[in-house]
Model the fold of this input.
Amino acid sequence: MMLFLGFAIIIQTVDLVKWKTINRNQDNLFLILQYCGFLMAIAVIMVGIFSEDYGRIHYIVAAIFFLLLLIFMTIANIVLKTHTKYIKWIWYFANASILTNLIFILTFIIGLDLHILKWLTVFSGSIWIGLLSYNALKLEDHVNN
Done:
């Protein structure tokens, strides 16, 4: 599953080009998002390769993935909030997913290993990536019409 998620993240990261604007600062943030997205995809693929049986290496790449997911979603949500074609309810869903990820990271730091929170973070992040792809398709429809 994590391998497919990694490839979906790569496709979504490449797809971020559709959101470019005439604002140079915003476009620079999209470039940072693309780098972050590629690193996040590599991290989640590594999580799939190194299961929990591998011990410490799994937890290191998983921690990298969750931190990059938090950074990626936060920056993307900030940049896209002002975009006129960004569907606002997706923005609200992303905020809930960011909050879930942040709570998971904080509980993990203090030593609580809540697997349900981990999977909720993974699934909500995956759903958000799908919703962003859906929104990008709607963006294309606006351009083509």
About this structure: The chain has five helices and no strands. The CA atoms of residues 104 and 110 lie 10 Å apart. The chain has one domain: 2-144.
